[in-house]
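User: Can you help me understand a structure? I only have the sequence.
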Amino acid sequence: MRGVMGIDKRKKVSCVLKKTPPPAVILAAGMGSRLRKRNGGIPKPLTRYLGLTLLERAIKTCMRAGIREFYVVVGYKKEMVKKHVEELKKKYRVPIEVIENPNWERGNGTSVLAALRRLKKPFILLMCDHVFDPEIVKTFVERAMESGTSLLAVDPRKDWVFDLEDATKVKLRGDNIVDIGKELENFNGIDMGLFYCLPDFTIALEEAAEEGEYSLSAGVRFLAGKKRIKAVKMDGRMWFDLDTPESIDHARKVVLESISTKGEDGYISRFLNRKISTRISGWLVNTRITPNTISVISFVIALAGAFLFGVKGYLWTLFAGILVQLASIVDGCDGEIARLRMQSSRFGAWFDTLLDRYADMAIALGVTYGYWLVNPHPLAWIGCAVAVTGFILASYTRKEYALRYGVPIPSGPFDKLTKRDLRLFGIFLGAIFNRPFLAMVILGGISHIYILSRLVSTYVSGREFQG
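Assistant: Let's start by predicting it. Here is the structure, written out as tokens:
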């Protein structure tokens, strides 16, 4: 039996890793036979899930964790996968090197061994068909950069896995791995398919291969016996093993439902808008449309509604109200698409906020002009000023509070009454009853009361004098 890497050398490697994240190796060599009916026989890495191929999603997830160097192990239909890798290299401008594994049919252990022989340095390892919340990989990378041993991410939640029978089970004692395998009956964790591999993994996989075992689990079992691999428990966030059509459908449903119940949503967004917008996003995510384009579409719909509010006649007013509510629903899709495709950006969020404020002002002006045509009195424009300043300052108050105090403004039922979703829905209801101006002024007044209440409560609480 060959020995493992010396301790001094491992410590030296660990110190180097603290400077930059290790590279990522993505296994993309398998056939994905259970997905062939769904994807028409294309390689598993090219299977699309929520707008991205599995390989692209794996790379973007790692990039969110700070990784900037990639290796992709290919096997089945390697030329198709290599072509896609070249596309991703140009798209994201990151180095991605292909490692060919001629023995891919024997098992995933041979793919890891091919990567180990090529790199000869520590790396993060993940399977292209395992989809992770980016925070999982980010946290795991941080742990890896402090570790002197190989690591395996383990989820202690047995009820999270879609197909528990097919999952690789892990028996743990503390953070020590006692046993691993799909057939385990006594286990307390699930292998998440996320590893930190030190070079001594090579010896483990070679030893397993000599005994006729070519799986990655066999190598883990060998290292566990030498106390050279530890478990990192990673529960509480979403991850999925997508190796069947049913698992993809399940993951898609869970992710879309999680978006529809965002905690910071207002009442209308949570109980009405998201129910519709997530269905729209579930379709749009597979198109080429971008989140910023959706922001513009929502803005244009709102402008159309604002214009129609200025046209005399109840039917035009009703149609304007419908357009305003539709704009509110579509406005949720840009953020949903950005999260589903991992395209969120500071510019996108800023751009959407600016368009929302312009749309709010346009709607207020349209409603006021329509009211003024029937009731030509200066008080109409005073009411418009009250509403517009209330709408804008309510949003400004939240952002300025967070900037000045370093924490979000305390949230509560009153706070949700001033959010944009309820504001536009209120104007929509006002249009139904042919009273959009009255609804707008009332909502603007509520916003001013909210702002004053926050000023007073902050002053009384003493936060004014803290720090």
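Now, to help you interpret it: Residues 7-243 form a domain with the Spore Coat Polysaccharide Biosynthesis Protein SpsA; Chain A fold (CATH 3.90.550.10). Residues 368 and 413 are 28 Å apart (CA to CA). Let me know which part you'd like to focus on.
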